[in-house]
Amino acid sequence: MDLAKYTFGVGDRFGRQGKAQLEAFRRARAEGLDVAPVWNKSNREHAIIGTTPADVRREADEAVRALGWTGPYHVDADHVSLKNVDPFIDASDYFTIDVADFAGIAPPEGEVRAFVDRHRSLSRAIEIPGIAAPLDVSIEDLAASAGRFLIAVREAGRIYRRIEAKKGAGRFIAEISMDETGAPQTPIDLLVILAAIAGEGIPAQAIAPRFPGRFNKGVDYAGDPARFASDFERDLAVVAFAIEAFKLPRTLKLSIHSGSDKFSIYEPIRRAIARAGAGIHIKTAGTTWLEEVAGLAAAGGDGLALAKEIYRRAHGRIDELCAPYATVIHIDPRRLPDPRRVEAWTASDFAGALRHDGSSAAYNPHLRQLMHVAYKVAAEMGALFLEALAKHEDAIAPRVTENILDRHMRPIFAKPAEKQL
């Protein structure tokens, strides 16, 4: 099973927007943007909402049938570990193997020496197309990176083989994720990680490193876009080099766990992948859930009332809701509007505060991030919330489609319009 050159991961907390999501890919394809959808959902989300991996598979398959989609598509077991991968194996064909927690654990000294001995040919000034200056790698550099990442890659191998034993070789996509580590990986780190992946026998088709800056959920990139662009371009070059050097799958590509809405770095990504001829996987988070809330608010009446109620309850449970996402959100409680004030808001007031539009004075990134984690509140509402989604589908579905296509896929994948002479 080969991964398409361009893939885009979409989450759907409540499993109701599969067709609206796929419509964005259908329209993109009509415009010449050949991007494959990947429906992703984590074990944590399943536990909170009360769904199973089979529900995601069902949603994806039903959307594909309904829209007559003939391209590739996947269902991603998102951020799985050895302790929770088994329930995903039958329903998923893409596995984001998350071993970030194992990065930094020191392996036995003998394993580091053995790795360095196997890869002494890398201890030199390596000319890598796409990187201006040679990558100067010493024996000490190899040993230091191996000391940080060998245990993580070994754990990835254990998880991969667990999936392979039950699913069969070549019947799924493997992505290795180390994006939630404390510090970004250097090009030398990435080179060592990819060498170790090859040595572990993992036919990885995507690698998610930790990039500089913060990728908070549902809001723009927090960091220096120029620094990101430089690191991203170097990582693209290292991946291309590693494919040849370590005989990794030719479909191997970078995966960016964006958390959605990283508008300030979409243009650098687009330019870099076009220049390198590289593929990319972009994984988004709760964008669809936020569009559901925005659609409810825009519908007015009971839809707006429900959106306000979700906010009111979430505001009273900030610490509880934010704790699992502490590393990927940044909320200043002082900048959250009082629920009593929100109660008086119009539909446009609520939608304006929630919609990610940096040019709008109404936009409130703190409210948006709180609503991102407030899906637990909606899940607790059960049928009340799901019935509201069904009732206001006409207000929600177009927002879901347009958000994915207009605000994400076109900026990343579309070629720039040619200038008129």
Structural commentary:
This protein has 421 residues and is an alpha/beta fold. The protein has 2 domains: 6-285, Aldolase class I (TIM Barrel); 288-381, no CATH class. The chain is built from 17 helices and 10 strands. The strands form 2 sheets. Strands 1-2-3-4-7-8-9-10 form an 8-stranded parallel barrel, surrounded by 5 helices. Strands 5-6 form a two-stranded antiparallel ribbon. β7, α6 (187-199) and β8 (206-208) form a beta-alpha-beta unit. α7 (225-246) packs parallel to α8 and α8 crosses α17. The protein is globular, with a radius of gyration of 22 Å. The N and C termini lie far apart (45 Å). The relative contact order is 0.13.
Descriptive labels:
two-stranded antiparallel ribbon; 10 strands; eight-stranded parallel barrel; TIM Barrel; alpha/beta; 17 helices; 421 residues; 2 domains
